[in-house]
Amino acid sequence: MSLTSFAPAKVNLYLHVTGKRSDGYHLLDSLAVFPAVGDKVTVSEAASLSLSLSGPFGAALEGEADNLLLQAARSLAQDSGAALALEKNLPVASGIGGGSADAAACLRALCKLWGVQGADLPALALHLGADVPVCLRSIPARMQGIGEVLAPAPRLPEFGMVLVNPGVAVPTPSVFKARRGGFTPAPMLPAIWPNAAAMASALKRCTNDLQAAAITIQPVIGEVLATLSTLPGVLLARMSGSGATCFALFATPAEAEAAAAQIPQESWWRWGGGLYQPPQTGL
Ligand SMILES: C[C@@](CO)(OP(=O)(O)O)[C@H](O)COP(=O)(O)OP(=O)(O)OC[C@H]1O[C@@H](n2ccc(N)nc2=O)[C@H](O)[C@@H]1O
Ligand SMILES: Nc1ncnc2c1ncn2[C@@H]1O[C@H](COP(=O)(O)OP(=O)(O)O)[C@@H](O)[C@H]1O
Fold it and tell me: Pathway, per Swiss-Prot/TrEMBL (predicted)?
């Protein structure tokens, strides 16, 4: 038997650093959404654990000593076998949680393949990375703590999103280290945003507190943001997570798709569309 689970990218519509824990981890407040672009994780019955890589960014993970997929499989069942296959469509170390999404998709698929019941998936997920718990369900959510405190997002209107990555990897720890300034309080969010313009104007009052630090490490992020800001119909342009991927919001997925095609820089990875709708199957 083989099962495939989609691992959508995670985009932080805002990201406030609200404090710091005694172990050095930063406390965050963020609204995470999941666009309909991502990796694909396929798990098949096998006697031992193995991983194969494909897709445009598969080669970037060839040298990875312990891929998050293997870590996820071992955390679920130490000695069970499975052939894992990862189609890597998302740029690596890019602030859109590709590795976290892969780990979460792997947990979902292996639970079904192995018939695992009663596992504490949120705890296993958090152990794999601060972003993995929110990726388990891959639906819009507010993240607090370091990512383990999840609450429903406001009801979101229809909107579109463009993602652009300039092809530079930005390691998350370096960005947190380079960050200057104090802490930003968590914003008050409404229960519902009636339309994309209202959502964007509320999000403009929020920030990504890692953006300035990421730009000092990779100044090209500033160029990406400037390019996104000039696209016709753009409502908001901002960096996601610890970068370098940036996003722009539009009134509809079709507008975003058309805007993505207009990005002049051919060497940048780009995508435009709407949000991901998880399947009823739980995969
Ligand atoms: C910044 C965020 C926002 O969603 O996204 P990405 O940029 O990774 O997509 C996440 O919090 C990233 O979570 P995750 O990618 O799981 O981070 P980890 O690998 O667990 O952490 C890498 C390192 O970053 C620092 N770190 C990470 C998260 C956090 N809340 N505080 C931190 O100080 C720590 O030094 C940690 O050792
Ligand atoms: N399946 C995976 N996909 C991406 N990165 C992985 C994976 N497994 C391990 N990693 C490691 O995790 C690091 C962070 O990757 P990623 O999740 O893409 O970053 P981000 O959360 O910033 O988007 C990578 O630099 C890589 O070393």
Answer: Isoprenoid biosynthesis; isopentenyl diphosphate biosynthesis via DXP pathway; isopentenyl diphosphate from 1-deoxy-D-xylulose 5-phosphate: step 3/6
Q: Find out whether the beta carbon of 42 lies less than 6 Å from any atom of ligand 2.
A: no
Query: What are the pLDDT digits (tens) for 161-179?
Result: 999 999 998 999 999 999 9
Ramachandran class of 118: left when φ > 0, alpha when ψ lies in -120 to 50, beta otherwise: left
d(CA 274, CA 18): 29
The closest residue, in CA terms, to atom 19 on ligand 2 is 93
Comparing CA positions, the residue from 34, 52, 39 lying closest to residue 135 is: 34
- Cβ of 68 below 6 Å from ligand 2: yes
Q: Which residues are annotated as a binding site for ATP?
A: 91-101
Ligand at minimal distance from the CA of 105 is 2
Instruction: Please provide the CATH number assigned to the domain covering 2-151.
Output: 3.30.230.10
Map out the domains of the chain as residue ranges: 2-151, 154-273
- The interface pTM score, or ipTM, of the predicted complex is 0.95
- The architecture (CATH level 2) of 154-273 comes to 2-Layer Sandwich (3.30)
Question: Mean pLDDT, to the nearest integer, of 195-221?
Answer: 98
Task: Give residue 41 CA to ligand 2 midpoint distance, Å.
Answer: 14
Q: Determine the Cα–Cα distance for residues 177 and 209; give it in Å rounded to an integer.
A: 12
Distance CA 125, CA 10 (A): 15
Catalytic residues: 10, 131
